[in-house]
Amino acid sequence: MSTIIYYLHLIPALFLQIFMLKTKTYYEDDRRQNKRIKGSAIIISNHRSFLDGLVIALRFFFKRLHFIATDFYKYRLKIVKFIVYVAGGIFVDSEVNSFDFIEKSRRIIAKGRSIMIFPEGGFKHTFEPSKFSAGYIMLAVKMGAKIIPIVNDFNYGLFKRVHLMIGNSIDLSGYTNAELTKAKFKEINEEIYNKFLLLFYELKKKKAERLSYKYEFIAPQPGNVIRINAGSYYHYGVFLNANEVIQFGHAVNRAGENVVVNSVSLNEFCGAKIPEVRIIKKRFIRKTEDIEKFAKSCLGQGRYSMMNNNCFDFANRVTLKI
Question: Which residues of the chain have pLDDT under 50?
Fold first, then answer.
């Protein structure tokens, strides 16, 4: 009966999918990918609105999904709590330190169903995914369920399109009979979070590849992407002012530094070369103040990847509306 009620609520949302969401899905690996979820799984995703779970439920329409609901819903109207329940909500009451949700989750996983968890916690309006709480790891280990990471770009709107990046499943079955310490949980969580971020960067790169632009030798303005020819490649940075260019890695005259996001002067960035400035339509560019805030929030960040997290990819994420 609960499954019937679930689909009675989900079927009308197909109109939302057609006219507002129009979800496009990318995969970490098309050859061995989670285009369909076989068996049970713990789905983890970033979180910004009530639509986030719906997008994933519609993407896996023929898979009965449940999700962890915090005690936020305790203070809602009874009808709201009922809707959350029939939609597959598994309530967690942190005030009474109850672990009933673990047994409920175990029964659901035993039926071959899957559970969505948003490990950031509440709605996170941040430039990049926030750090994860490790509770999802405990459930995955206790129940022997694989973890499927899904990145959402939250691009909701009538004339927009939502993009998902679905990663390869993560198998933690090797820890099922192990006594995991708090430090080990933290280590596993950090590893999965880093993997999630790389999926996030890959999704942003795929969206940036669709845009066209050119470079000119003109004076840079705050928020511009600039580049210099470093011989066999171009090095990119985000110009804020003559004393601040935010770059990922080092400019050609600062060899030997760690590959992290750092700030240099325009002279340090360019060396003896003249920078080129990217020209692109304004509707694709973030506000200058947001570019500065985003760029500075990344200072000290690592996780360099030649494939999807290099200096060019970093500059795109910071400046483009992708």
Answer: none
